[in-house]
Amino acid sequence: MSAAAGLSLRGLHVELGGRPVLRNIDLEAEAGEFVVLAGPSGSGKSTLLRAIAGLVPTAGGQIEAGGAVLDGLSPGKREVALVFQDHALLPHLSVADNLAFGLRARGISRRDGRQQAAEVAGRLGLEALLDRPAAQLSGGERQRVALGRAMLRNARLVLMDEPLSSLDAPLRARMRQEILELHRRQGWTTVYVTHDQAEALSMADRLGVLVDGQLQQFDAPRALYSRPALVSVAAFLGNPA
Ligand code: ADP
Ligand code: MG
Asked: What pLDDT does residue 2 have?
C-alpha cells in the first residue's frame, strides 16, 4: 500500500460463533476518501468496522491505516474513531463531560480536556449546550456530540456505523451534509456504513456493497448503479437492470 493510502484491507477474514461472517475482503481507500459500505442487514457491515477498530478478532488477512499495520494493536492504540448509531453517550453526564470522556485516560488534564471540548462544541454549534445532560439532547444534538468525540480523538480514520438511522428524514438529510463537511474539514478518511440506498449513492466517493460477508463490488456510485456486477448489487441499489 502507498504511504498516502488511508485504509487497506487485504484478504480480511472474520469468524463469529464458528461461522464465517466476513470472507476475503479486499478494499483500499485513499487518504481523505469518503467510502460508503452498504448492504442488507446481517451482511457483515458492522463486523467489518469492528474488525478495523480492533473490537473483533480477525481470522486472516491484514489491516493497514495511514501506512501502519493495525493487526495486533489493541483498540486504544489504533487511532481510529468509531461513531455508532446509538451514540454511546453517558446520559447523566453533560455535553462537555461526554466530549472530554476518555481524554483523561490519554494523559490530558481535566482543564485542557474541558477547553478542547469547548472548542469542538463551538465548531459543531453546541456551545450553548455544554452543561446540559446528554439525556436532554435531541437526536441531532446527540449525533453532533458523537462526532465531536471523534474529532477529539485526533483520529485520521473515522468509522461510522449507521450514524443517522435513528433520526427523522429532514434531520437525516441535513446531517448528511454536516458529516460530509466535517469529513473534508478534518481531513478524515471515513468509512460510513448504511443500509439506506439514497444515502449510499449521495454521499460516497466510492461505494462498496457487502452481501453475505463478501464485498461484491467497490466503485464510484455512478459505476455501480449503471454497471452492477451482480443481480444482488443491482437489487440493493434499487436498479431494476
Ligand atoms: P450488519 O451490520 O451488516 O447488519 P453484522 O456485522 O452485525 O451485520 O452481522 C453479520 C453476521 O454476523 C450476522 O449474521 C450476525 O448474526 C453475525 N454476528 C454478529 N455478531 C456476532 C457475534 N458476536 N457472534 C456470532 N455471530 C455474530
Ligand atoms: Mg450493523
From this structure: 45
